[in-house]
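Lab manual, section 2.4: Encoding a predicted structure.

Procedure: take the sequence of the chain (461 residues), apply the prediction step described in section 2.3, and record the output as structure tokens. A sample record is shown.
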Amino acid sequence: MTARPLRRVLVANRGEIAVRIIHACRALGIETVLAASEADRDSLPARMADRALCIGPAASQASYLRIDALLAAALGTECDALHPGYGFLAESRALAQACADEGIVFVGPTPDQIHDMGNKLAARALARAANVPLLPGSEEVTDAAQAATIAGTIGYPVLLKAAAGGGGRGMKVVERAEDIARAFAAASHEARNAFGDDTLYLERYIRNARHVEVQVLGDAHGNLVHVGERDCSLQRRHQKVVEESPAPNLPVATRDGIRAAAVALARAIEYRNAGTVEFIVDGDTGEFFFLEMNTRIQVEHPVSEAVSGIDLVQEQLRVAAGERLRYRQRGVVLRGHAIECRINAEVPTENFRPSPGRITTWRPPEGPNIRLDTHCHEGYVVPIHYDSMLAKLIVYGIDRDEAILRMRRALAQFTIEGIDTTLPFLRHAIPHPDFVSGRVNTALVGRMIDEMNGAVPAHAG
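Recorded output:
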């Protein structure tokens, strides 16, 4: 592949990731055109980009999810590349293929790589071929009776999952044989509505589970590295809340094994650009298993940047332009510890319901080793049309203890008024004894919420 410097990039996204992409493009001397909905025409990224173009009404289906509108914007403004960010169409094979058909560089992996990793059953097959550990599970399950037979072999509890799924949709935990028919019907219905595909499969369910993922970066010349792992176990309804790198309390052999498995899978599919291979770690046995691969930049990428010093979005743009990776594995040096908190416009005491509206006060924390990725400011009106994330607060320390202390101070200093936010919950979560000690799993946030709301005694085991 011959390198071809990018001249102008269409930013096909909104919010903080649009700001992040524009910053990366500026650093590389690349012009930007923002594709914005009517609701985002006066947003911060619209003001920052060299040019902004309205691609449709506020509703995502009429703007950010329209491939024809994005392509028309890119072609009409003579962009030679398109960066999809995350969410929306970031993992759309159709968008990547449409870009290729029009001679537009898609800043991401190939259409086939997006497709292969997007289908969970296909991804499991590729992981198996690469000798990456898999949870005991099944191929496609066609009906409840077959699911019951397989579950009996695996042993309860089991997890019914949508092959085309993500974000927890089409996913049901089944504790007992008598519940599997009802769970199968519910998961099928949810998967069909969410993805237009009701294909399901089964996996063993791990109660004491940690979510650990590995950042990988590859180019079109066969070079591939990992940029360490992130622990994303603090989740609410399968949505990550707090992320950190490196993963705490992970035995060296497990950490090395997870990193090697991620690289093996990415290398097996000749992966190019930024991607993340996700694993479940059994907190009781220490075993790890492949979960899925996300073929895009992740929301939580800043913690990997903080410990590696690598600007992952700039590397995405360089690789998309055909350049070789500037790093070999021995050149990726990971130092210190980084933590990221997602700050959302939600009401923690009311089951985290969205809280759109005007921000009347916006005073972010300041100080060394504090980073804030955001599109918000005083006077900004948080729209009702999109996800509720306002900002990502990232801190860095020489070790985890220093990072936790810095995050506690930063959260205490952060003032947002006019709308409700998740700051009160985060101020409860970061000093929590289980988080401080690194005793994390995917059930911890639920327990923290119950404690904060008085449903269970504080810090109950």
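Check your result against the sample. The mean pLDDT is 95.
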